[in-house]
Amino acid sequence: MRLSLVAMKKRPASSASRPVALAERIERAPVLDRPVRALSDAVVRALPPGTRTDALHGVPFGQPAHPALVRMPLGCWTSAVLLDLFRGSERASGTLVAAGLAAALPSAATGLADWSALHRHQQRVGLVHAISQAGATTLFGASLLARATGRSGNGKVLSAGGLALATVGAYLGGHLALRLGAGASHAEPIDHLAGLGWHDLCPLSELPDGELTRRQLGYLSLLTLRSGDTVYVLSDHCAHLGGPLHQGRVVTVRDATCVTCPWHGSTFRVGDGAVMHGPATARQPAFESQVTESGWVQVRPRGKAKREAAA
Ligand code: FES
Q1: Which pLDDT tens digit goes with each residue over 239-283?
Q2: Residue 184 forms part of a structural domain
Q3: Hey, which of 266, 268, 277 would you mutate to test ligand 1's pocket, going by the most ligand atoms within 8 Å of its Cβ?
Q4: Which one in 59, 98, 102, 250 has a CA-CA gap of 20 to 30 Å to 277?
């Protein structure tokens, strides 16, 4: 009785943790570093900073494009396999397989662009995710060929194999996004840490003109850029992956003063945190500032009072 209780306790824990343990082993697998480096270099060469790369990251949409696009191939292929299983129309299954293949290309392009601007352990998981999805795409391509040449039985088996591999890839994609924070906005907690109203930051005289500096406000690290009596203030942790913006560069983009993150080059307008270049897609939290008569810089979260009043 005692033995069986021990066995009952152990079984669910080990089976539940197996996929995560595997994903975590991939994170720590330096054997993947050589292909990661080679592919990453190739992607960076093929996608220099600019409007096209920003579009692949999803900058014009305000969030990464990849998660929205991957639904198309996965949805089509899952539907095709279900039609195969329940004796649906062969023509419909073939059409769904072909539609999924057509949608796989933009999904892969957006995924590669995002992947090229990740940390190494994230890139290792991303590489295995990409290999799984490339394998699934190959199997669905072979399935389409088999169906087109009258070997529909083979086509169905190949589709089922492709869906199984795509599911493994999707699990790793979920691990990458939800456990390792790739693609999520790292700026989201800032609004909850910043209190309403004006807060003393530091004397204006402490801030060198035209230089990026970091100041602490409670739990918040803030980036400041002084221009005469005006002080621009943003959260210092980059919305992309938390890079230290105060170690970045001041640049001018479309006549606006901006800061470029030192880690992957995201560029934010200092006046309001708007994204001028990716890979970040979420606005950098910005603060309003004022200088008191005694020469102290005070800050408050930009727009927070309005947001709370509207909630
Ligand atoms: S952390 Fe990646 S661009 Fe800032």
Answers
A1: 999 999 999 999 999 999 999 999 999 999 999 999 999 999 999
A2: no
A3: 266
A4: 102
